[in-house]
Amino acid sequence: EYGVTVAIMPPADSRNGAEAEEMCLMEAFLERLELNKYLPALRELGVEKFSDFEEIEDQDLEDMGMSTIKKRRLRRGLQEEASTLGIVPYRIEFETGAVQETTSGPGEEQGGCRSIWWYFLGTMATQIGQSSMLVLSPLIAIHITGSTTLGAAAGTAAAGCAAVGQLIFIPLLIRFDLRTLLLLTMCWKLFMLLTLVYFYSHADQYHGTLKHWVSGLVFSLCMADSIPRGGIDSLRNVIPMIYHGADQKALSTFYAKFQFAYNIAMCIGPALLGLSLQVNRYAATYMVSVSYAAAILCFWFMPSILYNKEVADADKAAKQEKKGKGSKVGFWEMCSGSLSKLKHPLVLVAFVGGLNVQGQRLKGIYATIFAKGLLHEETGHTAGFIVSAQGAGGILGAMIASRWATSCKVQYWFFFGISIVLLRTWGWVGSIATLDAGGTTNEAAMSFVIITFLYGLSNMITTNVMITLLNHRAQSVEIMGLSRFLVRISGVVTKMGVTFICGRYELVAHLAGEPTDYRAMFTTMSLCITFLFCLPAFCCFLHMLFFSGEGYEDNYPPIGYEPVPCAEEEDGSKEGLELKVTDYGATQDSGKPAANPN
Fold it and tell me: How many CB atoms lie within 10 A of CB 285?
């Protein structure tokens, strides 16, 4: 990088080494922000070092032709460097900046106590409650209805409603302040939860027809709580984009902070649920209520973040004008061109393998049925510890993946992942052996909790390396979007299958007048998971090991290359074929050819 920047600098003998180094760093800084084309204009204004930015005014940047979004990008970049450089670009003002737009109350000074850190704290509090509800909703449904099948059905329907909630919130994201949406959403979730708590605490008072009506209402309340959960997922994806624009480094930092808060909450929430359930079954609902109330308080102090459609449209129009008018391509033609890469074995195997590793998504339902059905626990508190163990394993797995993911080839990480999936699928057998030997339910649950911890660890590592491999090979937004969509659909379908199996065994037991055979139920579920997920994943591993894994790319033609005729010679003949590739790199300027790596 420095070799490129030094080539365009004045001779080194015209200034001392310190000035040359600072100019080199400033040029690299502008290049990172994709604003290096404004360097000549900045130097004409006398900007020779970072501290000179303190004297640059907003009008100066406008005279250079810098758009509002680019000015915002420069401002955020300077704010990131402020702690190390000691500069405050106070003369640059952005009326449309996300941090500057606050809907603060009367008399509150701009900036005040508003901070994006309140968003991370609110996210942690929200996720503590939502991760607990993954287990608590089926437990409440089972307690009120007395049916494990309806508890599983509640979890299945909740997952479907969360997917619907994502679609419902999309048009709202570009019309309303995201802080306001978060506050309203959390108030709605808190109201639904308090209503659910009331009926849960009086469940033993309902009998006959009234019990059926209350059961239906409880089921509906679980669904009503899940719809805004999907909306919050959509908000999580949009807030970083609006807050930081196209600043890749700032986005990466934002996502790292968010993922840390998310994983910590996924571990703490279910653990608190398990502890509170041991006190009594109502304490868990109070804990979730407190976490939702804390989230509302945190979101109140976060800055307002509003999607500025006019600025975004203007920026898109400017980019389109710069690229020039081309032929319009329909949505299906655009997607089919990228999805055609799935025919390539290097992409297809990575796609199917990643789907098999991530596709179960049985965290809450599987743990709940294990605790209430197989262990026959009255409160089902073990389910909280199981989900918490998976979250703790995910935190450790993320740390390992960030440091040692490239220490061995992808196919071996993949084999490690599917081996732990198989172990977790049949891990309940060890718990049954402990119970048959006279052990307590806590002793029987311990082995499954440890196995679930290993599952969370391996799943995080395997998901990381497989998504990275698919990203590297496919270079397609459509394929990555399809992968995420199929993972979510696979999770819903898998939950439906578990619900069907539970219903079948409960119905057979009811007709025979006998207790439900949960051991046979888990055997059937484990066989289905083995044949639908583990076996195809093992086949993908064998293909990667011998044909399409890391290091075997030369076994197949290059991905995305299309043979196109070369220009005709003067005599009308064609000299061979040239290869054409599509590059979907986020920072690649589509108007320029990709750089030659050689």
Answer: 24
> What is the chain's alpha carbon radius of gyration, rounded to the nearest angstrom?
28
Q: Tell me, what's the pLDDT at 8?
A: 42
pLDDT per residue over 132-164, tens digit each?
Answer: 887 887 887 787 777 778 778 877 777 778 777
Give pTM, 2 decimals. Answer: 0.62
Phi and psi at 393, nearest 5°, equal: -65, -35
Per-residue pLDDT of 334-352, as tens digits, reads 455 556 778 889 999 999 9
pLDDT at position 215 = 76
Q: Which tokens is 476 given? A: 């397609």
CA angle 158, 418, 381 (to 5 degrees): 45
Residue 371 three-state SS? helix
- Rounded Cα distance between 429 and 444, Å, is 10
Answer yes or no: are the C-beta atoms of 269 and 127 closer than 8 Å.
yes
**Residue 176 DSSP code:** S
List the structure tokens of 325: 């008018």
* Phi, psi angles (nearest 5°) of residue 575: -95, 85
Burial class (CB in 10 A: 0-12, 13-18, 19+), 211: middle
Helix H segments across 245-342? Answer: 248-279, 283-301, 309-323, 331-339
Report residue 495's pLDDT band, with 50, 70 and 90 as the boundaries: confident
How does DSSP assign 320-350, residue by residue? HHHH-------HHHHHHHHHGGGGSHHHHHH
Give the Å distances, CA to CA, from 428 to 164, 448, 504.
Answer: 33, 6, 20
Backbone angles phi, psi at 361, to 5 degrees: 50, 50
535-543 vs 410-425: helix crossing angle, rounded to 10: 160
CB contact burial 192-210 (16+ within 10 A = b; e otherwise)? bbeebbebbeebeeeeeee
